[in-house]
Amino acid sequence: MEKQHEHIVRSYEEELSLLNNKIAKMGGLAEQVLGQSIEALERRDPELAAATIREDEAIDALEREIEEQTVAMIARRQPMAFDLRQIMAALRIANDLERIGDLGKNIAKRAVAVVSEQQPKQLMLGLKHMGELALGQLKDVLDAFIERDADRALKVWYKDEEIDAMYNSLFRELLTYMMEDPRNIGLCTHLLFGAKNIERIGDHATNIAENVYYLVHGTAITDQRPKGDTTSTTPVALKRSAG
User: Fold this and answer.
1) Does this model's pTM top 0.85?
2) Which of 172, 166, 198, 188 minimizes the C-alpha distance to 119?
3) Handedness of CA 112, 99, 29, 203 (dihedral sign)
4) 152: which residues sit within 8 A by CB, 6+ positions away?
5) pLDDT tens digits for range 29-81
6) Is residue 240 assigned to a domain?
């Protein structure tokens, strides 16, 4: 009987390890898609953009595998407490990583759309910097998940405001370019959507941080979620200042 119990425990631990490995693989692919999409947009490289768009399919496939495995584990093992939190955290994190892959794919599509456009270097520098910050957040929060490091996850959670601040600044800069010369509207609109996708990726990294914290402590983060996106009020402010 004891040997049978040991076998069940070992088998369950192997399943959890496989689940963690799939999350790590999915996270690595999400990082790759995001990094390549920013590079494709900066270089206006349609071939790299197309390759990046195709890579998102592997992220989608992994999410389906993780979903199937977690459902099977819950049905077969009927886990409780920390064991259940591990499975549910993996499922939720996989969902956020799938969304990050989609957002990275959308950025790559913008790269295809602006191939023939002339891009002011300072605008691309701002977008690139924002992308690098989001990529750093994603790397840190995935490390926090693998290491079960709630403190590291909390640092990522608090730093989401930095991405929001960069987005606000870039949003205003792009609006200024569009108002100064209507010929910039097409390019700036694509860059604006790209920047918004990066800002949303930051939000999903924050979601992952919340799940890591809950996984470790069994309680939610009690502080108010940091959020610094003020772009919804920017057009009003511009209109008032113009008047």
Assistant:
1) yes
2) 188
3) positive
4) 140, 141, 143, 144
5) 999 999 999 999 988 899 999 999 999 999 999 999 999 999 999 998 888 88
6) no
CA-wise closest residue to 214 among 79, 84, 73, 101? 84
Q: Whole-angstrom Cα distance, residue 242 to residue 145? A: 48
Furthest-apart CA pair in the chain: how many Å?
A: 82
Q: What CA–CA distance (Å, rounded) separates 151 from 221?
A: 11
Structure tokens belonging to residue 205: 């990294």
Please tell me the distance from the alpha carbon of residue 78 to that of residue 212, in angstroms, as a whole number: 21
Please report whether residue 114 resides in a domain.
yes
Q: What is the pLDDT of residues 194-230, one digit of tens each?
A: 999 999 999 999 999 999 999 999 999 887 776 666 6
CATH number for the domain including 98? 1.20.58.220
Q: What is the mean pLDDT of residues 97-113?
A: 95
Q: Evaluate whether residue 241 is within a structural domain.
A: no
Cα gap 6→206, rounded to integer Å: 37
Residue 219: CB partners within 8 Å, gap ≥ 6? Answer: none
Burial grade of 11 (CB within 10 A; 0-12, 13-18, 19 or more): exposed
* Cα separation values, 169 from 89, 124, 130, 156, 230, Å: 34, 13, 10, 21, 10
Domain that holds residue 59: 2-235
Q: How many domains does the chain have?
A: 1
Determine, yes or no, domain membership for 123. yes
Q: How many CB atoms lie within 10 A of CB 132?
A: 14
